[in-house]
Each structure stands twice: as structure tokens, then as C-alpha cells.
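Lab notebook, bench 4. Continuing the backlog of folding jobs that were queued last week. Each job is logged with the same field layout so the records can be merged later without manual cleanup. Today's entry covers Lipoprotein lipase, a 464-residue chain. Filled in by technician R.K.

JOB TYPE: sequence-to-structure
TARGET: Lipoprotein lipase
LENGTH: 464
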Amino acid sequence: MLYRVCISKGAITEKKRDFSGIKSKFSLRTPEKTDEDTCLIVPGQDTSVAQCNFNHTSKTFVVIHGWTVTGMYESWVPKLVKALYTREPDSNVIVVDWLALASLHYPVSAAYTKLVGKDVATFVNWMEEQFGYSLDKVHLLGYSLGAHAAGIAGSLTDKKINRITGLDPAGPRFEYAEESVRLSPDDAVFVDVLHTYTRGTPDLSIGIQKPVGHIDIYPNGGGFQPGCTFVETMQLVAMSWLQEPDQLVKCSHERSIHLFIDSLLYQKEPIMAYRCNSKEAFERGLCLSCRKNRCNNLGYKVNRVRSKRSVKMYLKTRAQMPYKVFHYQVKIHLFGNVSITKSSQPFLISLYGTKKESENIDFVLPEISTNKTHSFLIYTEVDIGELLIVKLQWEKDSFLSLTDWWSTPEFGIQRVRVKAGETQKKLVFCSPNGLSYLTKGGKPVEFVRALTSCEILVLEFFKE
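JOB STATUS: finished
OUTPUT FIELD FOLLOWS
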């Protein structure tokens, strides 16, 4: 039992720090055995810190798991531990074991996050008081229910923890909860959150929908992640020999962890996220600006931006690691002598650059109209380098559709404007003929990078 000296109203008093009620275990894992709890640090037992070879001069990562069906650690735990040691070899990676409480009926386990948070806070306070270990070196990483346990821990420490990362914090029982019982921006000096499975109505969504950090990032809109369809997930289950049969539910939820792991392993190619008021505006390509901290790195090397309101950010990813993609805003103005308006139209766009090409990227415009400018977002999985040529193609509807049976609609396009999110470059691509016609079901139309303005090229074309 630790006695802490306190000053109260001018008198010196002693406060007992009671460790008897701690239910959680704190395992300091090693780079050699990332999947085994070989050494436990026991709060109140000073010798356990030395026995586990705790590094007092380096930073400490505290990993807090979430609810579990099996009552065992999930496969992501050693993967995250390994990635943390790969990036920070001299650090301490501590895994909090609350498996016995996390494998109960979900509402019961959710209620126990208060106890787990209190345990973590007691552990951190003890390290600071007994060994002078600065909380500036402490980074809590909580997944699902573990994110809220991390938040409670941060609210109970005597000094502010440096950082908490919420990995798809749990939604049920927390969507409408008060800040005191869930993760919130006040729980650490900096709180960043990844939301990867926010489907369904609030409070029934697996992941929490509301922003709960200083920066809240919603990959692919936060609702569903690439590679997590029923067929793809069943293939994954078959490949793992049914070791994780609940992967269908976990796929998008757990993607938050793997995105963070990606940020640890691929530091030279950070994933970019972009500030936006809504995912609908992001889908239109309207939010690819990096001015005034409007873009940021996802994961470990996020730039700390604190504002009065939570910053919501969006991005697209691949289905597998490395998850980074390259974002582009494309703007086209459609000309025509006849007024045409159509909805849900399928298109293909191909990009050709100095390094590679990315062909036949499909996208759908909700509505297109004559004499109107349209903006949309596309992304590529490969780095094409400097963009040189853009091709557009307007696809046919299904064979059974009779929408355009008696006519073939077309639009004139003079130029295509493109903004690259990752490089922030703005480029203009012109029709070699001054004005090209995009016909539904027709051939691709090519636009080349303009060395001069398209207006000049168009004037030259019409003079001829």
C-alpha cells in the first residue's frame, strides 16, 4: 500500500493509495515474444518494474483491448505490439488484460470499463508518484470498449496523459453517454480517434458515430471498409481455418487497428486525411485542401491540432495493407445545345502519369445536367506520378434499360480540371479539338495536360 503525501488547507496529510481492488493485469511484452504475457508489472510492487526491465527513459504504450466473445486475446494484439516495437524499439509496450470482464454479456462488460479505467489510472499514477515517470511519455491505445476505458483512465489521472488514441470506440451504451463515462477530448493532452464501423442507427452502431476526440477520422466515410463484404470475409475465415469465425462482424470494426498499424510500418508513405463538414461533401471532392491544417496524417504521426470543436476528417483506403491511396478532385463543365438532365450515371476515368497509369476507375454521378459544372472524387491505389493525360468514358446502362432507346445523349467538354490531394497540385487538361463530345455508350474521350490555357486552345480551334 502506497502512502502519498498531500497538502490540504495548510496541513500535511497522508493519503493511502489502495491497490487491493485492481482486477486488470499489466503485461510488459517484449519484441521477442509479442504474443505472450511473460512479465507482469503489479501496481504497488516496486520490484516488478525492475524485474520486467521497464525502460524509464523511453515512452510507454498502453494497449487496452475491447469486448471479446472467446475470452482470449484476439490476433491483432501481438500484431500491434510488434508494430509499436518496430517503430519505437526502446519503448515499453504494456497490454492491459481484462479478459475475464470483457467476455461477459456486452452490457455487463460495458459497465466494467469504469473499473478498468480506474485500474489503468491507478497504475499510471503509481508509476508517476513512485518512479517519477512522466505522463508526457504515456500513450494509451484503446480499441472498442477499451477506448472508453482509456478515456475514463485519462479523466482519473492526477496529471494529464500525453495522448489517447481511440480505435473505433464502441457505440452501444456510449453514443448518448455523458463525457464522464466515455472517451472525450478532455481525457488527455491530445485525443485522436479512428471511426471505421459506424453503420446503423445511433447507439446500435458497433462503433460510436459522434466525434469524441480533438481529431476524429472517418476512413471511407466510417460506415463500412473495403474488403469487408460477405464474400471477402468468408474467404478470410476459410484461409484462417475458422480461427476467427466472428470476423464478419469484426472486419470493419477492427480495421481501425490495422490502419494504425499501417501508420507505424509505412512511415515514409503516410496516409492523408482531409477535413470536411460531411462525407457527402468529401465524396464530391470538395475537401482536398491542406490550407490552415485542413489535411493531416492518419495514425501515429498525426499532427496535433486542437480546436474548440472536434475536427472531422475523411479519406479513402485500399482493402489491404498498405492502405494508402491517392485522392483527386475532378471538375468538368458539360456543354450542350439541348437541355439534358440525368441521374445515377456510370462513368469510367483513366489517369496516365509519368510513373504509372490507373485505368477504368468507375464512379457514378448522382445527377448530370447540361451547362453545369460537376465535381467528384476519385482515387487510385497506385502512385501515377505527374498526371499527363485524362480519359473519360460514359458507360451504357444495363442491356434491359430502355431509358435511351430512341436517342443517344451526349455532352460537350472543353476541359477537365484536376486537383491532387496528396501533392496539392492543380492541373488543367484540354480537349485536343477544343471541344470533345462525351457520348453515352461511346468511346473514351482524351484530354491532355495544358501548357497554355484551354481558352486559348479553344479560340484557336474555332478560328480554323
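OBSERVATION: Residues 5-14, 457-464 have pLDDT under 50 and may be disordered.
SIGNED: R.K.
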